[in-house]
């Protein structure tokens, strides 16, 4: 019952937070120096015998609801959004939800595969580094982790493309499919797309694994220095049982904060990585929309990110009680 009250309370608070976040996003979008409406009005005004730029601006602003004030325009958008009407994308000229559906699952597959590799690599290496503190193994793992944390995404992606695409020729520089994609069989098309996703996924794993690795090591060291671990060792338990049965279970509690909070992020896309490799996921799609001043799509995407963030925090709090029954939500 306490858990249900907690969830309901958090959801109500999240609705209030989401309202103000959406308002801030709308104000920022309306204040952007770039404008799709201005671009289209300028193009149409330069056609022979066309109306003036000002006349086109007035007509297009009225058509897209841009002639309203910011506050009234926001509540107009909010009223439609509550009913599930997000309008058409100005840049892609299709319904916002349709474009989102067509691109989000590719980003989800990339994010899910990257997360599996990240957890499989970071947590074991973090535990090994903590067990062998101040050894050569610990220093090696720490250097690798810090290198991953420090490398900018664009720099590391450029190195991968220079080595594996330019010099070795193993992968294409850009895109999701190859030139002969349409001539391939169904299996061939699957492996062609998988081949093009190798470098983006490697980029996502390398730049993300370091922070989780360091976090695991730090929390594992705190647990290994606890009194109950010394007691378990004094009782003659094997080091394997001490590490994996007693220490690791308690290390999971803080790790849930990161892993649980990152689960909704699987649907948000990797904007920088997708843009660098021209992978048509939700991140790359939203980047093009924001550059073009596509307010309907950008509003939907950024509000969606806000919902994911709030949901991730709620999932993390609830998972505490799942991982450790001693934790009670009050």
What can you tell me about this protein's structure?
The chain starts with a helix and ends in a 7-residue tail after the last helix. 74% of the residues lie in helices and 0% in strands. Helix 2 packs across helix 3, helix 5 crosses helix 9 and helix 7 packs parallel to helix 12. By secondary structure, it is an all-alpha fold. It has a domain of 196 residues: MetI-like (MetI-like fold), CATH 1.10.3720. The chain has 14 helices and no strands. The chain is globular.
Judging from the principal axes of the Cα atoms, what is the shape? globular
Q: Which percent band covers the strand fraction?
A: under 5%
How many strands? Answer: 0
The appropriate CATH architecture of the domain at 99-294 is: Orthogonal Bundle
SSE sequence, one letter per element = HHHHHHHHHHHHHH
Kindly name the structural category.
mainly alpha
Proportion of residues in helical segments: over 70%
